[in-house]
Amino acid sequence: MAKSDDDDNGTDIGDEPHELWDEPWEGLPPDEAPWEWDEVEREKNGKTKNPPNRKGVWYRWYFIYHKPTCTNIKISADCDPRTGGWFNPHPSSGSM
After folding, report:
1. Exposed e or buried b per residue across 47-68, where buried means at least 16 C-beta atoms within 10 angstroms of its C-beta
2. pTM of this prediction exceeds 0.85
3. CB neighbours of 11 closer than 8 A, spacing ≥ 6?
């Protein structure tokens, strides 16, 4: 379930990303049924170059998931270390 931007946390809504997810796969298209994927591996890959709220340090993470179709997919997402929420999950190329 996504975290709300209008939580009473004392920040202006313009300073926060549009939507943060509890799990990195939650922001992916639901027609792919990512909740059925098994996480195989995760890797922290350094600071995000352009944090979504331009405040603090966010980190880019890469995940390998195994789909029921017996294929693996690599997903990247940015993590807000303050909340633990995930932003902008999307398929990523390359290998870990």
Report:
1. ebeebbeeeeebebbbbbbeee
2. no
3. none
